[in-house]
Protein backbone atom coordinates (compact mmCIF):
# COMPACT_ATOMS: atom_id res chain seq x y z
CA UNK A 1 0.00 0.00 0.00
CA UNK A 2 2.77 2.50 0.82
CA UNK A 3 4.49 2.00 -2.53
CA UNK A 4 1.22 2.45 -4.40
CA UNK A 5 0.42 5.56 -2.33
CA UNK A 6 3.82 7.06 -3.16
CA UNK A 7 3.36 6.25 -6.86
CA UNK A 8 -0.15 7.74 -6.85
CA UNK A 9 1.13 10.98 -5.31
CA UNK A 10 4.11 11.21 -7.64
CA UNK A 11 2.06 10.67 -10.80
CA UNK A 12 -0.62 13.22 -9.87
CA UNK A 13 1.97 15.74 -8.69
CA UNK A 14 4.16 15.43 -11.79
CA UNK A 15 1.16 15.75 -14.09
CA UNK A 16 -0.02 18.86 -12.24
CA UNK A 17 3.51 20.23 -12.54
CA UNK A 18 3.46 19.83 -16.29
CA UNK A 19 5.85 16.88 -16.40
CA UNK A 20 5.41 13.47 -17.97
CA UNK A 21 5.67 10.93 -15.15
CA UNK A 22 7.63 7.72 -15.58
CA UNK A 23 7.02 5.71 -12.44
CA UNK A 24 7.94 2.03 -12.21
CA UNK A 25 6.48 -0.25 -9.56
CA UNK A 26 8.04 -3.62 -8.68
CA UNK A 27 6.17 -6.16 -6.59
CA UNK A 28 7.38 -9.68 -5.85
CA UNK A 29 3.78 -10.80 -5.16
CA UNK A 30 1.32 -12.20 -7.68
CA UNK A 31 -0.52 -8.84 -7.62
CA UNK A 32 0.35 -5.34 -6.48
CA UNK A 33 -0.81 -4.11 -3.13
CA UNK A 34 0.30 -6.58 -0.47
CA UNK A 35 -2.41 -6.58 2.17
CA UNK A 36 -5.07 -5.48 -0.31
CA UNK A 37 -5.09 -9.07 -1.56
CA UNK A 38 -8.12 -10.81 -3.03
CA UNK A 39 -8.78 -14.20 -4.60
CA UNK A 40 -11.49 -15.73 -6.77
CA UNK A 41 -11.70 -19.54 -6.91
CA UNK A 42 -14.18 -22.11 -8.22
CA UNK A 43 -14.61 -25.19 -6.06
CA UNK A 44 -17.11 -27.96 -6.86
CA UNK A 45 -19.44 -25.56 -8.63
CA UNK A 46 -19.17 -22.82 -5.99
CA UNK A 47 -17.67 -19.46 -6.98
CA UNK A 48 -15.81 -18.15 -3.93
CA UNK A 49 -14.55 -14.57 -3.60
CA UNK A 50 -12.70 -13.14 -0.62
CA UNK A 51 -10.27 -10.50 0.60
CA UNK A 52 -7.71 -12.29 2.77
CA UNK A 53 -5.65 -9.25 3.68
CA UNK A 54 -7.59 -6.14 4.51
CA UNK A 55 -11.32 -6.84 4.50
CA UNK A 56 -12.45 -3.24 4.93
CA UNK A 57 -11.02 0.26 5.30
CA UNK A 58 -11.91 2.34 8.36
CA UNK A 59 -10.18 5.75 8.01
CA UNK A 60 -9.07 7.30 11.28
CA UNK A 61 -7.48 10.51 9.93
CA UNK A 62 -9.20 13.28 7.99
CA UNK A 63 -6.58 13.12 5.23
CA UNK A 64 -7.15 9.44 4.53
CA UNK A 65 -10.93 9.69 4.88
CA UNK A 66 -11.10 12.54 2.36
CA UNK A 67 -8.93 10.69 -0.15
CA UNK A 68 -10.83 7.40 0.15
CA UNK A 69 -14.20 9.10 -0.14
CA UNK A 70 -13.43 11.76 -2.73
CA UNK A 71 -10.84 10.10 -4.94
CA UNK A 72 -11.25 6.34 -4.60
CA UNK A 73 -15.04 6.35 -4.20
CA UNK A 74 -16.44 9.37 -6.06
CA UNK A 75 -13.83 9.93 -8.80
CA UNK A 76 -12.46 6.45 -9.52
CA UNK A 77 -15.23 4.17 -8.25
CA UNK A 78 -12.72 1.85 -6.59
CA UNK A 79 -14.53 1.59 -3.24
CA UNK A 80 -18.07 1.70 -1.90
CA UNK A 81 -19.40 2.35 1.56
CA UNK A 82 -20.38 -0.64 3.66
CA UNK A 83 -22.08 -1.18 7.06
CA UNK A 84 -20.30 -0.08 10.21
CA UNK A 85 -18.12 -2.64 11.91
CA UNK A 86 -19.49 -4.05 15.14
CA UNK A 87 -17.29 -4.78 18.12
CA UNK A 88 -17.84 -7.88 20.22
CA UNK A 89 -16.25 -9.09 23.41
CA UNK A 90 -14.95 -12.62 23.92
CA UNK A 91 -18.49 -13.79 24.71
CA UNK A 92 -20.03 -12.39 21.51
CA UNK A 93 -21.68 -9.46 23.27
CA UNK A 94 -21.76 -6.24 21.29
CA UNK A 95 -19.93 -3.37 22.95
CA UNK A 96 -21.65 0.04 23.13
CA UNK A 97 -20.00 2.36 22.51
CA UNK A 98 -16.99 0.91 20.72
CA UNK A 99 -13.99 0.74 23.01
CA UNK A 100 -11.41 3.49 22.59
CA UNK A 101 -8.76 0.82 23.21
CA UNK A 102 -9.36 -0.74 19.83
CA UNK A 103 -6.85 1.24 17.77
CA UNK A 104 -6.17 -1.13 14.89
CA UNK A 105 -3.12 -2.89 16.35
CA UNK A 106 -4.80 -6.33 16.20
CA UNK A 107 -6.17 -5.90 12.72
CA UNK A 108 -5.12 -4.36 9.42
CA UNK A 109 -7.82 -1.79 8.98
CA UNK A 110 -8.75 -0.12 12.28
CA UNK A 111 -12.17 -0.42 13.90
CA UNK A 112 -13.86 2.56 12.25
CA UNK A 113 -15.32 3.96 15.47
CA UNK A 114 -17.34 7.02 14.50
CA UNK A 115 -16.15 6.90 10.87
CA UNK A 116 -17.37 5.70 7.51
CA UNK A 117 -16.37 2.20 6.45
CA UNK A 118 -15.38 1.29 2.89
CA UNK A 119 -14.67 -1.84 0.89
CA UNK A 120 -13.03 -2.24 -2.51
CA UNK A 121 -15.23 -2.95 -5.49
CA UNK A 122 -15.39 -5.54 -6.83
CA UNK A 123 -12.70 -6.50 -4.31
CA UNK A 124 -9.95 -4.90 -2.23
CA UNK A 125 -7.27 -5.46 -4.83
CA UNK A 126 -9.23 -3.24 -7.21
CA UNK A 127 -8.02 -0.25 -5.19
CA UNK A 128 -4.31 -0.79 -5.74
CA UNK A 129 -4.78 -2.18 -9.25
CA UNK A 130 -6.84 0.86 -10.19
CA UNK A 131 -4.08 3.19 -9.03
CA UNK A 132 -1.13 1.10 -10.24
CA UNK A 133 -2.37 0.91 -13.83
CA UNK A 134 -1.01 4.43 -14.29
CA UNK A 135 2.48 3.11 -13.48
CA UNK A 136 4.73 0.76 -15.38
CA UNK A 137 4.41 -2.08 -12.92
CA UNK A 138 5.86 -5.56 -12.69
CA UNK A 139 4.34 -8.32 -10.54
CA UNK A 140 5.97 -11.62 -9.58
CA UNK A 141 9.19 -9.65 -9.89
CA UNK A 142 11.73 -9.65 -7.08
CA UNK A 143 14.23 -6.79 -6.91
CA UNK A 144 17.60 -8.39 -6.16
CA UNK A 145 19.89 -5.37 -5.98
CA UNK A 146 19.70 -1.58 -5.55
CA UNK A 147 23.07 0.02 -6.24
CA UNK A 148 24.25 3.63 -6.25
CA UNK A 149 26.22 4.34 -9.44
CA UNK A 150 26.77 8.04 -8.80
CA UNK A 151 25.66 11.19 -10.60
CA UNK A 152 22.12 11.00 -9.20
CA UNK A 153 21.56 7.50 -10.50
CA UNK A 154 20.57 4.15 -9.01
CA UNK A 155 20.75 0.80 -10.80
CA UNK A 156 17.94 -1.60 -9.93
CA UNK A 157 18.41 -5.28 -10.77
CA UNK A 158 15.30 -7.42 -10.86
CA UNK A 159 13.79 -10.62 -12.21
CA UNK A 160 16.32 -12.72 -14.09
CA UNK A 161 19.03 -10.08 -14.01
CA UNK A 162 17.43 -7.22 -15.93
CA UNK A 163 18.51 -3.70 -14.94
CA UNK A 164 17.01 -0.23 -15.05
CA UNK A 165 18.43 3.13 -13.94
CA UNK A 166 16.46 5.63 -11.85
CA UNK A 167 17.05 9.06 -10.35
CA UNK A 168 14.78 8.41 -7.36
CA UNK A 169 14.02 5.26 -5.38
CA UNK A 170 11.14 4.51 -3.00
CA UNK A 171 11.73 1.45 -0.81
CA UNK A 172 8.26 0.46 0.36
CA UNK A 173 9.04 -2.95 1.88
CA UNK A 174 10.96 -3.10 5.14
CA UNK A 175 12.57 -6.36 4.04
CA UNK A 176 13.89 -4.66 0.88
CA UNK A 177 15.90 -2.19 2.95
CA UNK A 178 18.60 -4.87 3.18
CA UNK A 179 19.17 -4.43 -0.57
CA UNK A 180 20.91 -1.11 0.05
CA UNK A 181 22.97 -2.27 3.04
CA UNK A 182 26.19 -2.97 1.13
CA UNK A 183 29.55 -1.14 0.80
CA UNK A 184 28.67 0.54 -2.53
CA UNK A 185 25.80 2.42 -0.90
CA UNK A 186 26.73 5.84 0.51
CA UNK A 187 27.23 5.64 4.28
CA UNK A 188 24.57 8.29 4.88
CA UNK A 189 21.97 6.09 3.18
CA UNK A 190 23.02 2.95 5.06
CA UNK A 191 22.89 4.80 8.37
CA UNK A 192 19.56 6.44 7.56
CA UNK A 193 17.95 3.12 6.72
CA UNK A 194 19.18 1.33 9.84
CA UNK A 195 16.16 2.57 11.78
CA UNK A 196 13.83 0.69 9.42
CA UNK A 197 15.65 -2.59 9.97
CA UNK A 198 15.18 -2.22 13.74
CA UNK A 199 11.36 -2.39 13.52
CA UNK A 200 9.92 -5.69 14.74
CA UNK A 201 6.68 -7.25 13.53
CA UNK A 202 3.99 -9.53 14.87
CA UNK A 203 2.46 -12.25 12.67
CA UNK A 204 -1.16 -13.07 11.91
CA UNK A 205 -2.92 -15.72 9.84
CA UNK A 206 -6.00 -15.24 7.68
CA UNK A 207 -8.31 -18.26 7.66
CA UNK A 208 -10.87 -18.51 4.85
CA UNK A 209 -13.85 -20.86 4.80
CA UNK A 210 -16.88 -21.40 2.57
CA UNK A 211 -19.82 -22.82 4.53
CA UNK A 212 -22.82 -24.58 3.02
CA UNK A 213 -26.01 -22.56 2.91
CA UNK A 214 -26.43 -19.15 4.51
CA UNK A 215 -25.72 -18.65 8.21
CA UNK A 216 -28.66 -16.28 8.45
CA UNK A 217 -28.76 -16.15 12.23
CA UNK A 218 -25.43 -14.27 12.17
CA UNK A 219 -26.42 -10.83 10.94
CA UNK A 220 -23.16 -8.87 10.92
CA UNK A 221 -20.79 -8.45 7.98
CA UNK A 222 -17.67 -7.49 9.91
CA UNK A 223 -16.98 -7.94 13.61
CA UNK A 224 -13.86 -7.03 15.55
CA UNK A 225 -13.33 -9.13 18.66
CA UNK A 226 -12.05 -7.40 21.79
CA UNK A 227 -10.42 -9.83 24.22
CA UNK A 228 -8.78 -7.20 26.41
CA UNK A 229 -11.12 -7.25 29.39
CA UNK A 230 -11.24 -10.96 30.15
CA UNK A 231 -8.80 -13.79 30.75
CA UNK A 232 -11.44 -16.44 30.10
CA UNK A 233 -11.21 -18.60 27.00
CA UNK A 234 -14.21 -18.88 24.69
CA UNK A 235 -14.62 -20.18 21.13
CA UNK A 236 -14.00 -16.63 19.92
CA UNK A 237 -10.62 -16.28 21.65
CA UNK A 238 -8.44 -17.44 18.70
CA UNK A 239 -9.67 -14.67 16.41
CA UNK A 240 -9.39 -10.88 16.28
CA UNK A 241 -11.86 -10.34 13.43
CA UNK A 242 -14.53 -12.33 11.57
CA UNK A 243 -15.80 -11.04 8.23
CA UNK A 244 -18.50 -12.43 5.95
CA UNK A 245 -17.35 -11.83 2.38
CA UNK A 246 -20.24 -13.50 0.56
CA UNK A 247 -23.77 -14.32 1.64
CA UNK A 248 -25.52 -16.46 -0.96
CA UNK A 249 -28.27 -19.07 -0.89
CA UNK A 250 -25.70 -21.74 -1.72
CA UNK A 251 -22.88 -20.70 0.59
CA UNK A 252 -21.30 -18.06 2.78
CA UNK A 253 -17.64 -17.12 2.53
CA UNK A 254 -15.85 -16.03 5.69
CA UNK A 255 -12.44 -14.62 6.55
CA UNK A 256 -11.18 -14.78 10.12
CA UNK A 257 -7.97 -13.11 11.28
CA UNK A 258 -6.20 -14.83 14.14
CA UNK A 259 -4.94 -13.00 17.17
CA UNK A 260 -1.21 -12.54 17.37
CA UNK A 261 -1.10 -15.08 20.20
CA UNK A 262 -2.79 -17.71 18.01
CA UNK A 263 -0.44 -16.88 15.15
CA UNK A 264 2.59 -17.44 17.36
CA UNK A 265 1.09 -20.76 18.46
CA UNK A 266 0.79 -21.83 14.82
CA UNK A 267 4.36 -20.75 14.07
CA UNK A 268 5.58 -22.99 16.89
CA UNK A 269 4.21 -25.91 14.86
CA UNK A 270 5.03 -24.66 11.37
CA UNK A 271 7.79 -22.03 11.56
CA UNK A 272 8.16 -19.13 9.18
CA UNK A 273 11.94 -19.53 8.97
CA UNK A 274 14.51 -22.29 9.06
CA UNK A 275 17.17 -22.46 11.77
CA UNK A 276 19.49 -20.47 9.47
CA UNK A 277 16.91 -17.72 8.93
CA UNK A 278 15.67 -18.68 5.45
CA UNK A 279 11.98 -17.98 4.93
CA UNK A 280 9.90 -21.14 4.48
CA UNK A 281 7.57 -20.49 1.54
CA UNK A 282 3.80 -20.77 1.79
CA UNK A 283 3.23 -23.62 -0.59
CA UNK A 284 -0.01 -25.49 -0.94
CA UNK A 285 0.91 -28.04 1.71
CA UNK A 286 1.77 -25.37 4.27
CA UNK A 287 -1.52 -23.54 3.67
CA UNK A 288 -3.46 -26.81 3.89
CA UNK A 289 -1.93 -27.78 7.24
CA UNK A 290 -2.64 -24.39 8.80
CA UNK A 291 -6.20 -24.32 7.41
CA UNK A 292 -6.91 -27.79 8.80
CA UNK A 293 -5.54 -26.70 12.16
CA UNK A 294 -7.76 -23.59 12.32
CA UNK A 295 -10.95 -25.13 10.88
CA UNK A 296 -12.21 -26.66 14.16
CA UNK A 297 -11.68 -23.35 15.99
CA UNK A 298 -13.56 -21.47 13.30
CA UNK A 299 -16.51 -23.86 13.23
CA UNK A 300 -16.79 -23.58 17.00
CA UNK A 301 -16.67 -19.78 16.76
CA UNK A 302 -19.53 -19.64 14.21
CA UNK A 303 -21.52 -22.19 16.19
CA UNK A 304 -21.02 -20.12 19.32
CA UNK A 305 -22.09 -16.85 17.64
CA UNK A 306 -25.15 -18.41 16.03
CA UNK A 307 -26.11 -20.17 19.28
CA UNK A 308 -25.98 -16.89 21.22
CA UNK A 309 -28.23 -15.26 18.64
CA UNK A 310 -30.74 -18.12 18.67
CA UNK A 311 -30.38 -18.68 22.44
CA UNK A 312 -30.07 -22.39 21.83
CA UNK A 313 -27.57 -25.09 20.91
CA UNK A 314 -27.16 -25.41 17.14
CA UNK A 315 -25.12 -27.66 14.88
CA UNK A 316 -21.73 -26.64 13.57
CA UNK A 317 -21.75 -25.28 10.00
CA UNK A 318 -20.80 -27.58 7.12
CA UNK A 319 -17.46 -26.33 5.74
CA UNK A 320 -17.06 -26.79 1.99
CA UNK A 321 -13.57 -25.37 1.47
CA UNK A 322 -10.77 -23.75 3.45
CA UNK A 323 -7.69 -21.66 2.77
CA UNK A 324 -5.06 -19.94 4.91
CA UNK A 325 -2.54 -17.17 4.41
CA UNK A 326 0.39 -16.25 6.64
CA UNK A 327 1.11 -12.57 7.14
CA UNK A 328 4.52 -12.86 8.78
CA UNK A 329 5.07 -9.10 9.04
CA UNK A 330 1.51 -8.09 9.83
CA UNK A 331 1.83 -5.49 12.59
CA UNK A 332 4.83 -3.43 13.72
CA UNK A 333 5.21 -3.74 17.48
CA UNK A 334 4.26 -0.71 19.55
CA UNK A 335 7.72 -0.18 21.03
CA UNK A 336 9.67 -0.42 17.74
CA UNK A 337 7.56 1.60 15.26
CA UNK A 338 9.16 4.77 13.94
CA UNK A 339 7.63 8.13 14.83
CA UNK A 340 8.63 9.94 11.62
CA UNK A 341 6.26 9.71 8.59
CA UNK A 342 9.02 8.46 6.26
CA UNK A 343 12.75 8.68 5.59
CA UNK A 344 14.13 10.61 2.64
CA UNK A 345 17.75 11.44 1.77
CA UNK A 346 17.44 14.27 -0.73
CA UNK A 347 21.11 14.25 -1.74
CA UNK A 348 20.77 10.70 -3.05
CA UNK A 349 17.11 10.69 -4.06
CA UNK A 350 16.19 7.62 -2.04
CA UNK A 351 13.69 7.08 0.74
CA UNK A 352 11.75 4.48 2.68
CA UNK A 353 8.09 4.31 3.65
CA UNK A 354 5.63 1.76 4.98
CA UNK A 355 3.74 0.71 8.09
CA UNK A 356 7.01 0.78 10.03
CA UNK A 357 6.31 4.52 10.18
CA UNK A 358 3.21 4.35 12.38
CA UNK A 359 0.82 7.30 12.57
CA UNK A 360 -1.52 6.88 15.57
CA UNK A 361 -4.47 6.51 15.70
CA UNK A 362 -4.28 5.08 12.18
CA UNK A 363 -4.23 1.34 11.55
CA UNK A 364 -1.14 -0.23 9.91
CA UNK A 365 -2.82 -0.06 6.50
CA UNK A 366 -3.63 3.63 6.86
CA UNK A 367 -0.18 4.34 8.30
CA UNK A 368 1.38 2.75 5.22
CA UNK A 369 -0.73 4.97 2.95
CA UNK A 370 0.11 8.12 4.93
CA UNK A 371 3.81 7.21 4.88
CA UNK A 372 3.90 6.61 1.13
CA UNK A 373 2.05 9.83 0.45
CA UNK A 374 4.45 11.77 2.69
CA UNK A 375 7.47 10.38 0.89
CA UNK A 376 5.91 11.16 -2.48
CA UNK A 377 5.47 14.75 -1.37
CA UNK A 378 9.13 14.95 -0.29
CA UNK A 379 10.28 13.84 -3.72
CA UNK A 380 7.93 16.23 -5.51
CA UNK A 381 9.32 19.17 -3.52
CA UNK A 382 12.73 18.33 -4.90
CA UNK A 383 11.89 17.67 -8.55
CA UNK A 384 9.27 20.34 -9.23
Write down the secondary-structure element order.
HEEEHEEEHEEEEEHEEEEHHEEEH
Which overall shape is indicated by the principal axes computed on the Cα atoms? globular
Nearest-integer average pLDDT = 86
Strand content: 25-35%
Largest sheet: 6 strands, mixed
N→C terminal distance = 24 Å
Oligomer: single chain
Structural class given helices, strands, pairing? Answer: alpha+beta
The strand order across the widest sheet is 5-13-14-15-12-16
Sum this structure up briefly:
The chain is an alpha+beta fold and about 375 residues long. It has 7 helices and 18 strands.
Walk me through this protein's architecture.
The chain is of the alpha+beta class. Helix content is 27%, strand content 27%. The chain is built from 7 helices and 18 strands. It has helices spanning 2-16, 62-75, 125-132, 187-197, 260-269, 284-310, 364-383, and strands spanning 24-26, 38-43, 46-51, 79-82, 86-89, 117-120, 136-138, 143-148, 154-158, 162-166, 169-171, 201-212, 222-226, 239-247, 251-258, 319-332, 343-345, 350-352. The strands form 6 sheets. A 6-stranded mixed beta sheet has the order 5-13-14-15-12-16. The protein has a 3-stranded antiparallel beta sheet with strand order 8-9-10, with no helix packed on it. Strand 9 and strand 10 (162-166) form a beta hairpin. Helix 1 packs parallel to helix 7 (364-383). The radius of gyration is 21 Å and the shape is globular. It starts with a helix and ends with a helix.
Please describe the structure with a list of short key phrases separated by commas or semicolons.
384 residues, alpha+beta, three-stranded antiparallel sheet, 7 helices, 27% helix, 27% strand
Amino acid sequence: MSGVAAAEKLISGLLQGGKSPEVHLFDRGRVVGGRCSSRHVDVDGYHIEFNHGCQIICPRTDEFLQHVDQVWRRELGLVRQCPQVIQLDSFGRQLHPASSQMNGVENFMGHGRGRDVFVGTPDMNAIVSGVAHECQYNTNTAVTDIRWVGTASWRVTYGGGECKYFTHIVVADAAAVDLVQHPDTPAAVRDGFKAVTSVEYEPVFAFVAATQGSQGSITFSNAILDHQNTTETTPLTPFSMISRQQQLASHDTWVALTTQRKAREILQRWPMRTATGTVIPQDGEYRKKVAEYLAPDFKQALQYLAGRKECQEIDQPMVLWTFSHRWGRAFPTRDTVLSTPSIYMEEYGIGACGDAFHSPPASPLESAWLSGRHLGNQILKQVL
